[in-house]
Design a protein that fits this description.
This protein is an alpha/beta fold and 389 residues long. It has 2 domains: 4-159 and 292-375, Rossmann fold (3-Layer(aba) Sandwich); 161-287, Response regulator (Rossmann fold, 3-Layer(aba) Sandwich). The protein is built from 10 helices and 17 strands. The protein has an 8-stranded mixed sheet, with helices on both faces. It has a 7-stranded mixed sheet with strand order 10-9-11-12-13-16-17, with helices on both faces. Strand 11, helix 8 (245-256) and strand 12 (263-267) form a beta-alpha-beta unit. It is globular.
Length: 389
């Protein structure tokens, strides 16, 4: 059978254009629309780069790397002669903003939408379009539900903060049920929200509540202020209840500075993106993404990316690859039944997914959205991954 996989470049996208498998086949290909923030017409004037230096702006890189990962997946799908057409849209296009893109007639013909959001404001209009057209929308990277209600066509891969906190609480309850836990927080609304969630879960737990002591630190805290809350004669369990990356990194650094204190520090999902965190310490954090760079597929992506783009692939490359390949293959298998089969483990690459309906009102007939509840707990010791649960 001839390959019929096409990447169609739309909305003035000017870096790459891939068209393959133009031969006619008896099977009409299914269509996928992929959205990512690439900002290309902010950096390019046609084919001419207009930033005045050779380095791409940092704001462009996550979306561009997601796109590049998608292109690697396109190569694999082409090799397998899958019947798909993929349309790519830059959500930060100046020429065609998101509102204009959503008015395109061609978009109504797609069977799946995959998005890498980077702002909450983009979620509602795209989710409303997906619901109106009854098209599944996979939010692959952004951990926010956009305040959606009654929209079962929206599926969140990277779950909300509440889901992460619930999972982290259960992890502590399972592994440290009788030990004293020191919760460090900074002043702030988000920090109060997280600490409040933990306190509420501790009140409602069917088992014995955790022994949690809360300590608030300023942003300019000293190592001494942290150590005076710890015990040098036993293992300390510390929970960092702040999404602020600087606060978390400084807390881990302060704890690691004195080797005589044996401490396990449990932190936020944002820790997955902090380079060199826990270089001299033991840390644990939650993530929905468990990308192996040493197995056969990981090595293929790493080698191919380095050959094509002369660089090391970031996690966004792996996310783009997994999003298009995994959900593209599931679409081909289930077609209009995809929404009910998003947790299907066929075509698993790196991660398992467990999509569950989320309802703010339990008696509601329709789900507010679908959310992946499968999380991994990464344990790092001296900067090296020691285990993933």
């Amino acid at each position: 059978m001839s390959s019929h996989f096409k990447i169609l470049s739309i909305t003035g996208f000017c870096l790459l254009l891939f068209v393959a498998g133009m031969a006619q086949t008896a099977t009409k290909p299914l269509k996928i629309a992929v959205f990512a923030p690439v900002y290309l017409d902010s950096a390019f004037d046609g084919q001419e780069y207009k930033q005045g230096n050779n380095a791409l702006p940092r704001i462009i890189l996550p979306g561009l790397e997601f796109y590049n990962g998608m292109m690697l997946a396109a190569d694999s799908l082409n090799t397998e002669e899958q019947q798909l057409e993929v349309y790519f849209y830059d959500t930060k296009s100046i020429q065609e903003p998101l509102e204009k893109i959503l008015q395109k007639e061609a978009l109504k013909e797609v069977s799946l939408i995959i998005a890498s959001f980077n702002t909450r404001a983009e979620i509602k209009p795209m989710a409303a379009f997906a619901q109106q057209q009854r098209i599944p929308l996979i939010s692959m990277t952004y951990p926010n539900d956009g305040g959606l209600t009654g929209n079962p066509y929206f599926a969140l891969v990277n779950p909300t903060l509440r889901t992460h906190i619930e999972a982290l609480y259960k992890y502590m309850h399972r592994n440290y049920p009788t030990e004293s836990i020191t919760l460090f927080k900074r002043k702030g609304a988000a920090e109060d929200l997280i600490a409040g969630m933990i306190a509420d879960m501790n009140k409602k737990t069917p088992g014995l509540p955790l022994k949690i002591r809360s300590v608030e630190l300023s942003d300019t805290f000293s190592t001494g202020q942290v150590l005076q809350q710890l015990d040098s004669t036993r293992q300390n369990i510390v929970f960092c209840s702040s999404l602020n990356e600087t606060f978390g990194a400084n807390l881990v650094k302060a704890i690691a500075s004195v080797k005589s204190y044996k401490t396990v520090t449990i932190g936020m999902p944002t820790w997955d993106a902090i380079r060199d965190l826990g270089k001299d310490a033991e840390i644990i954090y939650s993530t929905p993404y468990n990308y192996s760079r040493t197995d056969k597929l990981g090595q293929y992506i790493n080698t191919t990316y380095r050959s094509k783009y002369i660089g090391r692939p970031s996690d966004m490359v792996y996310k783009g690859f997994e999003a298009l390949y995994h959900f593209g293959r599931l679409l081909l298998k289930h077609q209009d039944r995809l929404l009910n089969n998003l947790s299907d483990k066929d075509f698993k690459l790196f991660n398992e997914y467990d999509f569950q309906p989320v309802k703010a009102v339990k008696e509601s007939f329709s789900a507010d959205y679908l959310e992946n509840k499968k999380l991994y707990f990464v344990r790092k010791l001296d900067g090296q991954i020691k285990s993933v649960q």
